[in-house]
Amino acid sequence: MKTIYTLVLLLAIVACKKEQPSEASTEEVKSPTLEQEKTAILATINSETVAAFSRDYESWQNKWIQEPFVTKTYMQFPDSSITETLGWIEISDFVKTYFEEHPEPDPLPKPIKEIEVRVYGTGAWVTYEQVDSVRGLKRETRLMEKVDGLWKIAGMHTTIYGKQAEHHSTE
Known about the structure:
It contains five helices and six strands. With about 170 residues, it is an alpha+beta fold. It has one domain: Nuclear Transport Factor 2, Chain: A (Roll). The longest helix has 21 residues, at about 35-55.
């Protein structure tokens, strides 16, 4: 009986012994920090701007989500116009037409360095100001989605204040 009791006790101790994790399981998969996400989002926005101003459709379209839910809106105070484009097909057609009608590249604005970012899982809300030599001061809001590890644009709202408003810029 003493042998059975010792055997049961030994089995209980072995069963309760905490298993040491292997080296592979101790390496945690680290999520990107907010600063890393911000840097990646800035890279997408700045490269999309370069592509658009350079009339490089292929590079430009690679920065966008290509689904029916995407939107692109421009409000231009200098001429009181509003352009709203809904869905990828319409946005793509609008940009292709714009590039055809305005084939000469625009002067590139300075790359954006400061943005406000709110990350929500694989989505982000981004706001910033930018001044370009053609349109003047603009404020933009971008809705971003992370797809296969890359940030892409899912929505864009641009308010153009014009050249007279440049002195109010936070650049």
